[in-house]
Amino acid sequence: MPVITSIADLKRIYRRRVPKMFYDYAESGSWTEQTFRENTTDFERIRLRQRVAVDMTGRSTAGQMIGQDVAMPVALAPVGLTGMQCADGEIKAARAAEAFGVPFALSTMSINSIEEVAAATKKPFWFQLYTMKDTDYTARLIRRARDAGCSALVITLDLQILGQRHKDLKNGLSAPPKLTPATIANLMTKWSWGIEMLGAKRRDFGNIVGHVEGVSDTSQLGAWTAEQFDPSLDWGKVARLMEQWGGKVILKGILDAEDARKAAELGADAIVVSNHGGRQLDGALSSIRVLPSILDAVGDKVEVHLDSGIRSGQDVLKALAMGAKGTYIGRAFVYGLGAMGQKGVETALEVIRKELDITMALCGEKDVAHLGRHNLLVPEDFEGRWQG
Q1: Is the whole model's pTM more than 0.70, yes or no?
Q2: Mean pLDDT of the region 228-240
Q3: How far apart are CA 144 and CA 139, in angstroms?
Q4: pLDDT digit string (tens) for 282-340?
Q5: Residue 221 confidence class, pLDDT cut points 50, 70, 90
Q6: CATH for 7-377, among 3.20.20.70, 2.40.30.200, 3.40.640.10, 3.90.1150.10?
Q7: Is 370 part of the annotated catalytic residue set?
Q8: Which helix (H) or strand (E) holds 54?
Q9: Using CA atoms, how far apart are residues 220 and 225, in angstroms rounded to an integer?
Q10: At what angle do helices 235-245 and 257-266 cross, to 10 degrees?
Q11: Strands 326-329, 74-76: pairing kind
Q12: How far, in whole angstroms, is CA 152 from its chain's centroid?
């Protein structure tokens, strides 16, 4: 058993163990991947203020996200195809989140279905919704999430049109993988992944197959999905989806102050400052760079969360100190899942929690609720100076 001290350790194991197609799916951005890279490198530009001679006993990383008690303000972000990174991946990740005491968000494009994850867990999880042209399917999906006891609906706003990710096109990404000569050659080197996958509950998109007329197997799925993301999604439709749901709503994919104000006006419980992990609009600013302008725009009218680029507890601390009330990890937990299953996700969470705790102490703070800009050294040009 290797000694795991960082998320990077899990990533190395993950890369060795998981087929190239699915590693590339997680570890890629759109077009030139500029935004994908800057999501992480912009965190490095922020420095921490060390403080000494402060009583550090009785520290706590606990907090709340949309009124829910959490062991630390970190949720597992909705990630598509999680069940291809590891057999029954969504179930294992949800169980890890439940055991650790943080929220888990299930993607519309999950392998394990809403019902399968609900049956395998004891506490409510969040459900992430992609809006489709098929409004009847969308309505049924919302109803299924409600019937499963999901405690919040995460509506993703930045995937009306799919950004081009070169690696996925070149690899012929599919679930389950199409058996081309290149894919077969790679799968032969990933035998432990393959053996586990043979025993998986499911190897296709559980929220779609069998729930859409004319889509009864994976051969029909690709064409349906490619045509279904709704490019006409606007604020009026978002409002109607919120009304259909009738519970707590998180709007994900906010990267502009004006959009943040509109989301707050709709009455969202939280917004997620996110560029989809650099997978949509390449050339957009990193999430951490736009966070201050969005906080300035909405004040305390809506809870502001952040995802895209978080790979450590120090990143979490920086986002919280900048003003976010919660953070999300996607790739960081996927690395752990692909490396060691449920145990790997729990390890990823513990690595982040420990780094958050120690860094918080060395910054002179005992509680995440007390973190603020006073704990940071932020470059004067961090947000950028742009022509109007």
Answers
A1: yes
A2: 94
A3: 9
A4: 999 999 999 999 999 999 999 999 999 999 999 999 999 999 999 999 999 999 999 99
A5: low
A6: 3.20.20.70
A7: no
A8: none
A9: 9
A10: 40
A11: parallel
A12: 15
Task: Name the band, by pLDDT with cuts 50, 70 and 90, for residue 341.
Answer: very high
Average pLDDT over residues 251-261: 98
Total length of the chain: 388
What's the gap between Cα 241 and its chain centre? Answer: 21
Contact indicator for 149, 104 with CB cutoff of 8 Å: no
220-229, 231-240, 282-291, 299-308: least confident range = 220-229
Beta bridge partners of 377: 47
- Structural tokens at position 385: 């100076």
Query: What's the gap between Cα 382 and its chain centre?
Result: 24
Residue position matching structure tokens 């800009």: 373
Is-contact 356 72, C-beta < 8 A?
A: yes
**Average pLDDT of the chain to the nearest whole number:** 94
Q: How many angstroms separate the CA atoms of 253 and 259, rounded?
A: 10
Q: Which two tokens stand for residue 250?
A: 């998180």
| Given 276, 305, 370, 374, the catalytic residue | 276
Instruction: State whether residue 371 is helix, strand or coil.
Output: coil
CA-wise closest residue to 10 among 353, 345, 326, 304: 345
Q: What is the DSSP string of 324-370?
A: -SEEEESHHHHHHHHHHHHHHHHHHHHHHHHHHHHHHHHTT-SBGGG
| pLDDT tens-digit map of 125-139 | 999 999 999 999 999
Say which amino acid occupies 54: V
Give the SS3 label for residue 268. coil
Of 293, 256, 255, residue with least CA distance to 384: 293
Q: Which residues contact 132 (CB under 8 A, 6 or more apart)?
A: 138, 228, 229, 230
